[in-house]
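User: Now give one protein:

AI:
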Amino acid sequence: MTKNNTVTVPSAKLSPTIPRHNGEIVYLLVGNNVLNAVTLYEKLLKSDSPVLREALKLAHEERRNALAVRLLGSKLNLTISLPNDDHHIVQRWATWHNDHRAALDEEDQNLLSRMFLFGESIGGVDFCQAILKRMAARAKSGCISDAETVFMVYERTAAGSLIRQFLVDAWVARAPSSWLENTGDGVRHQEFNQQLILALARRCRGLSRWRDWLLGLSSLLICFLFVQLCLHWTGLGRIPPWPVRTISVQPEEVASLWSRIFPR
């Protein structure tokens, strides 16, 4: 099961040392907590999310058309509303732009999965890839997503999502046998069950091929050793000695040959 550890996440508000050419500060109004907006510089927001990039264009357009701007000349803040998202998740995403390690320093696979879902919903490819790497590192140490997290992911993603394939691979490689055997608990998603069964079947078939290959190689080795023993016992495998010819040369012949090569 996943571990639930509480970590302190740095504030998503950007450091004043960040250069001003990153543009204006954008205020993300998340959920019902409109008084505590998540802030991020305009350039950073546009670089990671095509969805929020389009929302930012609309925010600029709304601000240009605002009555207060036309009549009073006052400048309104750039705001984007995310009413269906979680404030803590969005703040992690904003923190990630300044400190990758702090934003992803998390052991709870459920929270990491929800962060991935948010990143996928806004088209944040780099953010999603970073989360999958973190989840893979946790999976190597035996911490993988439980059935409830898997169900939540499958309910909120479409077929072909990267996190779906990751969860299947993680279960095949690291899930306890009790998790794999308990298929009728009513919690596990039907699509996940189907993909898990197919992945386990492919793995068994691959192991079977390796086993057949090793058995075939062992059989060939045994046959080779048996033939060598038979040749040794019957004497057929012995190589006859190479015939040696002895050439006798007389001193006169050597002297004659020498005089031909080096005449005086």
Summary: The chain has a mean pLDDT of 76. The longest helix spans residues 190-234.
